[in-house]
């Protein structure tokens, strides 16, 4: 049986979707106690662990599974790769290195990875990940997908990657199945304290004025002092929402105004636009819960990834590699117990590699 451990599990969007897709999720690990409170509440029976992945070792992960041969290593290392404001590169941070170290030492049966599409511009992230997968003898396949193909009412684009020890290919995503903002949140009232997470940010008086002047159903603020094109706008009822970010409850941080009410969307509405059901409850204050929602993998996308893994595991058709890409190199031997290979010079070497980006090609080896 395949057993999932979700690194950087956040609120559990990825875990919950993988579970809906038929995989058995054993544990999720995240630094944030609030994320883990949400995770435990909504994934009963799965271990939610507060922990810093930069300091965890192979054994700390393996204790949740019966064998590395059953392990599906799922994970979305944090992805603040570029400054949104200045498009400048940010230092990658320790977390990505920690993820690569764990991948190296665990040699899981499958890898499921999700991140922002721009990760391919970073040799120290994408280049290092693909180099490491190749070095370990994995077949892998990556694709940029749009959430609205999975019935998520949102134009969210994400890069997904699956890796296996035998050829694996991500199939074409389903045809677009556009759901709209109205489909997802049209039934929610302006205010109702009885609905969990239906909380909204207080607007400053300047923003209240802007909001009143912004046309209903897709309007943008006309104020010449508005600094960014896409901020201070309202969503459109009959289109998918823009990408739900960690600041999705702030009118000044994107097109997060409600189509009709004079307020930004609530955390509950943001969660619905990510396809979380109303009984999935987020723990924490408004900023914290908005962060959890904006960071999450939309569960229907994760469900699709689980189905790709299970089809491959059961020998289905998605295992066919493209012609010329079917060569299989066996994985190099596992490091002796207690010896975390990538913690040493090898890890540093691979992390500093600027390998060419393999993106755009679905199946790599
Ligand atoms: C992009 S979010 C993951 C979202 C999650 N996959 C989901 O679908 O809900 C990244 C997470 O990494 C966590 N994180 C950041 N640094 C960490 C560390 N050193 N150890 C463990 N978790 C960390 C953050 O708290 C955040 O929840």
Can you lay out the helices and strands and say which pair or pack?
Layout: E1 3-7, H1 13-20, E2 24-30, H2 33-42, E3 47-50, H3 58-62, E4 71-75, H4 94-106, E5 110-115, H5 123-135, E6 139-146, E7 157-164, H6 181-185, H7 205-213, H8 267-273, H9 286-295, H10 299-313, H11 345-352, E8 363-364
Parallel strand pairs: 1-2, 1-4, 2-3, 4-5
Antiparallel strand pairs: 5-7, 6-7, 6-8
Helix pairs in contact: 1-10, 4-5
Describe the structure.
α1 (13-20) packs across α10. α1 (13-20) links the parallel β1 and β2 (24-30). The protein has an 8-stranded mixed sheet with strand order 3-2-1-4-5-7-6-8, with helices on both faces. The chain is built from 11 helices and 8 strands. The chain has a domain at 3-177 and 298-355: Rossmann fold, CATH 3.40.50.150. The chain starts with a strand and ends with a strand. It has helices spanning 13-20, 33-42, 58-62, 94-106, 123-135, 181-185, 205-213, 267-273, 286-295, 299-313, 345-352, and strands spanning 3-7, 24-30, 47-50, 71-75, 110-115, 139-146, 157-164, 363-364. With 365 residues, it is an alpha/beta fold.
CATH superfamily of the domain at 3-177 and 298-355: Vaccinia Virus protein VP39
Assess the beta-strand content as a share of residues. Answer: 5-15%
Taken from the alpha-carbon principal axes, the silhouette is globular
Residue stretches low in confidence (pLDDT < 50, at least 5 long) are: 318-361
Bound molecules: S-adenosylmethionine
Distance between the termini: 26 Å
Give a count of the beta strands, DSSP E runs of length 2 or more: 8
Biggest beta sheet attributes:
8 strands, mixed
Identify the strand order in the major beta sheet: 3-2-1-4-5-7-6-8
Q: Averaged pLDDT, please?
A: 85
User: How does the helix and strand content classify structurally?
Assistant: alpha/beta
Order of helices and strands: EHEHEHEHEHEEHHHHHHE
CATH architecture of the domain at 3-177 and 298-355: 3-Layer(aba) Sandwich
CATH topology of the domain at 3-177 and 298-355: Rossmann fold
**Count of discrete alpha- or pi-helical segments spanning 4 or more residues:** 11
Radius of gyration, taken over Cα atoms and rounded to an integer in Å: 21 Å
Amount of helix: 25-40%
């Amino acid at each position: 049986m395949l057993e999932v451990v979700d690194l950087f599990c956040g609120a559990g969007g990825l875990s919950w979707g993988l579970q809906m897709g038929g995989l058995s999720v054993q544990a999720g690990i995240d630094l944030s106690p609030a994320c883990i409170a949400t995770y435990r509440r909504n994934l009963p029976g799965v271990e939610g662990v507060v922990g810093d992945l930069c300091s965890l070792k192979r054994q700390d992960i393996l204790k949740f599974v019966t064998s590395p041969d059953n392990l599906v290593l799922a994970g979305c290392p944090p992805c603040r790769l570029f400054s949104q404001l200045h498009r400048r590169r940010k230092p990658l941070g320790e977390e990505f290195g920690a993820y690569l170290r764990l991948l190296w030492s665990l040699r899981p049966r499958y890898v499921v990875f999700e991140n922002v599409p721009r990760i391919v511009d970073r040799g120290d992230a994408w280049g290092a990940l693909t180099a490491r997968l190749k070095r370990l003898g994995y077949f892998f396949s990556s694709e940029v997908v749009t959430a609205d193909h999975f019935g998520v009412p949102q134009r969210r684009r994400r890069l997904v990657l699956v890796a296996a020890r035998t050829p694996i290919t991500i199939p074409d995503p389903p045809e677009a199945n556009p759901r709209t903002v109205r489909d997802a949140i049209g039934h929610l009232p302006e205010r109702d304290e009885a609905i969990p997470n239906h909380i909204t940010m207080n607007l400053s008086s300047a923003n209240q004025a802007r909001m009143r002047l912004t046309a209903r159903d897709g309007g943008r603020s006309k104020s010449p002092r508005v600094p960014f094109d896409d901020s201070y706008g309202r969503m459109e009822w009959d289109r998918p929402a823009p990408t739900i970010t960690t600041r999705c409850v702030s009118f000044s941080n994107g097109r997060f105004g409600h189509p009709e009410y004079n307020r930004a969307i609530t955390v509950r509405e943001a969660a619905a636009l990510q396809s979380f059901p109303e009984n999935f409850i987020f723990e924490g204050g408004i900023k914290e819960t908005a962060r959890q929602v904006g960071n999450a993998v939309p569960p229907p996308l994760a469900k699709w990834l689980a189905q790709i893994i299970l089809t491959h595991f059961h020998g289905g058709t998605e295992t066919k590699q493209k012609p010329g890409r079917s060569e299989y190199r066996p994985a190099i031997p596992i490091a002796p117990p207690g010896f975390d290979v990538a913690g040493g010079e090898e890890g540093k070497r691979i992390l500093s590699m600027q390998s060419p980006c393999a993106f755009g090609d679905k199946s790599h080896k």
